[in-house]
Amino acid sequence: MARPLSPTTLVYDLTAGGDPQVSPDGSRILYTYSTVDRERGKPVSHLWLCDIDGANRRQVTFGGEREGVGRWSPDGRQIAFVSDRVPKSGIFVMPIGQPGEARELTRHGQPITDLAWSPDGTRIAYTTTFDPENPTEAEPPPDAPPRVRVTRRIDYKQDGRGYLNDARSHVWVVDVATGERRRITDRLVDHFFPQWSPDGRMIAVQVPNRNGMCSQLGLIPADGGELTLVGPEDGVVGVWSWSPSGDRIVFAGDTVQTHQLDFFVYDVASGTVRRVTDDLPVLPMAGYPGQAAPSHPVWLDDQRILFHAVRGGASGLYTLDLRDGRLETVQTWQALHVGLSTDNDRRYIVQGYASLEGVGEIAVYDRQRGDVAIVTDHNVQLLREASPARWERFDVQRGEFTIEAWLLFPPDFDPNKRYPVVLDVHGGPNGYYGYGFVPWQQVLATHGFLVVFSNPRGSSSYGRHFTMQVTEDWGGEDFKDLMAVVDAVLERPYADPSRTGIFGYSYGGYMTAWAIGQTDRFQAAVCGAPCFDLVSMYGTSDISHTFGEQQWGGPPHEAREWYITHSPATYAHRAKTPTLIIHGEADERCPIGQGEQMFVALKKAGCEVEFVRYPGASHSLLRLSPPAHREDVLTRILGWFKQHLGEPA
Predict the structure, then answer these.
(1) CB 269, CB 246: distance < 8 Å
(2) CB of 63 within 8 A of CB of 375?
(3) What single DSSP character describes residue 145?
(4) CB–CB of 236/254 below 8 Å?
(5) Greatest CA separation found in the chain?
(6) How many CB atoms lie within 10 A of CB 291?
């Protein structure tokens, strides 16, 4: 029998190579290698270097516990990186391939991100938080009472960052020779991912508003000055790139939030914007501040770009002609890549790699040869000893839409046995599942469950029409899509219809809470960070004052009947399914009060229910919380379904 992937293995033994950066000459790759110190239960990360084919892999930073954001200088002779070897966070530069030690440039009292070298290599732009109430970043006296909080802005808090008020991410520029630094932004809004113009005079950044529900492109003089905003305030900007001559900027976004990006070209001299595509069939990968950088497109010549996008839960490389919007597929994979780094000649495309068979590796696509290679083997031996789940993709047709789905099998699957089935619902609702390595899916499947997941209508990576179908229809056709997927699995002789469960987090938690109030078909449920009462969520979530109006037809006073009709809270008194609720106590996206309301409602209904709360955990509980919490979550999910659905019979 194959050894299952235990919660301990998934949290403490899997390692990750991420944020890979190819050197300007295309010969080497710099990346962040992340592990967990099992004894102390803390994440550890350092910078590693290897040849373009993965050979000569070695660690190059040693001074701190958390080191990353490594970036090559334009001449490839040194790297800049962020390290905690000084209190809080500092930027260091270090020669590569020649004698010399890392040299500190500057430090801050909070995390530093988004390093970007100027084209001439004399300056580095970066972002860090600036608080106008504490401009010197002074630590409060140890016996000082908590500061009184007074706010006048609606985006005063944000998940993962807590209470912000006017503290926001700003762009700084530091001189590499002297360490002299200057903050070049002054508006009390966030600024992310600085990118220099080819002549080094301007910096382009993403400027989110309404806690990231909308965003614009911002242009700032590198020496400081007035910020020019590109695109409407209600629009979105996801990725962007300066043309080789600096006369234009291509960006992927939209004029309103539709969770689908199209390409536009901004003419710097005239200040005009031209739309290039309309309903792009793929989704350019825009990353997420603090977690993953955008996969910025690269210019192949004066009129064509190459970019990374996802279609149907699978990564691909595409080219776009900016004259006529002609899209061509370069390569697609049954995998989900992260980031996009290329050398000066645009031969190599280097990305992080994950699939249903592996995770935490580095992929290199050679445009000259037209092939891809996985050049690291961080987890290969581990995943030989504890095999991941087997998998199959299948379709369900409902009306005009084909619903894509995946089924995971235990590694030692026997078709003569009957297996319990668990449906996993993704978040969003405009997220997507696909060819990625998901820990909670793997822990269930390798312990004897069939795990099914799908992309019901509303999921992204299928174009705008499909993605917008969930708007003002939560719990409607999306729910029916998911039930049709479960029905398709239960037609198989080895799937046991008397032992089915449902799991979901965020919008997946909404759907889990919704399902147990609509049907008794599930014998167990695990509900993570649910949207339970949409009226109360509107005023307590960090984004629902905007997100809710986009998704739910307006504020509660304008659409109260819709809010009530589509809230799981309305039907929770009918629930009978044994339910485990998991929730981070510092969750600002789907606040802990949503889980509290659900727990009370199920208790009053006489339903078997447990409520597990994780102190200090944000909405990213499943991925970014302390290792001990992540192990606990996986252990409880597995235990709950084992207790109520049993083992394969």
Answers:
(1) no
(2) no
(3) P
(4) yes
(5) 71
(6) 11
Domain boundaries, the chain: 389-645
Taking CA atoms, 464 is separated from 258, 261, 447, 457, in Å, by: 7, 8, 37, 11
Enumerate helices (H) and strands (E) in the chain, giving the number of each: 12, 39
Looking from the CA of 489 toward its CB, the CA atoms found within 13 Å total: 34
- DSSP assignment of 325-344 equals --EEEEEE-SSEEEEEEE-T
Q: Give residue for tokens 């899997």.
A: 14
Output phi, psi for 124, to 5 deg. -130, 125
Fold (topology level) of 389-645: Rossmann fold (3.40.50)
**Rounded Cα–Cα distance for residues 51 and 95 (Å):** 17
**Where do runs of H (alpha helix) occur along 472-607?**
477-490, 507-518, 534-540, 544-552, 560-565, 592-604
What is the strand order of the sheet 192-196 is part of? Answer: 192-196, 202-209, 214-221, 228-230
Return the SS3 of 481.
Answer: helix
Sign of CA pseudo-dihedral 565, 567, 573, 575: positive
CA distances from 327 to 214, 304, 370 (A): 26, 10, 18
Do 219 and 227 contact (CB within 8 A), yes or no? Answer: yes
Closest CA to 640 of 525, 547, 476: 525
Contact 104, 86 (CB under 8 A): yes
Is the C-alpha dihedral spanning 37, 40, 41, 44 positive or negative? negative
| CA-CA-CA-CA torsion sign (156, 162, 167, 168) | negative
Q: Give the closest residue to 383 by CA, choosing from 7, 42, 13.
A: 13
Residue type, 498: S
* pLDDT, block means (10 residues), the chain with 649 residues: 90 97 98 95 96 97 94 98 94 90 95 97 98 93 92 95 96 98 96 97 97 96 96 96 98 95 98 96 87 90 97 97 97 96 98 97 97 96 96 97 98 96 97 97 98 98 96 98 98 98 98 98 98 97 96 96 98 98 98 98 98 97 96 98 91
**DSSP helix/strand/coil, 137:** coil
